[in-house]
Amino acid sequence: GSLHEKCDFETDLCKGLQEFNLQPGWIRRNGKSGMGPPYSDHSGNDSAYFLSLSSEMQYSSATLRTSIFLPTDEEHVCQITFHYWMSQMSGTLMVGLRKRSEDTITNIWQVSRELQNQWKANTIIINSTEKYEV
User: Fold this and answer.
1) Of 113, 81, 110, which is closest to residue 93 (Cα–Cα)?
2) What are the residue ranges spanned by the domains of the chain?
3) N or C: which terminus of the chain carries fewer CB neighbours within 10 A?
4) CA 1 to CA 4: how far, in whole Å?
């Protein structure tokens, strides 16, 4: 069967992201927070929450890690769709894959300096014969 889990930030971090992996620099906020754009989430809701990098993080990086996912196979493919917003200040947004047997993170998607100041969606498909995190 397929497991389809929606992840939002309305009450907290969602199950897919681990609390202790929220590094300094990430803020859970909404469009009404008075912190500048975006003034709503991807659906136009100004009171819906999303994660944002604080402006002090302009020259450094911050990571969000998922919980550990089980291996994929022909029946169970992992598909992750996420919405993102990049401002003039933004650097590069990257998605990396770390398999259980490896210490390194393999970069599987990245974007920088494109279509700024609007919400975009992206879907990535992950195949892994071993447990992994993203």
Assistant:
1) 110
2) 9-60, 66-133
3) N
4) 10
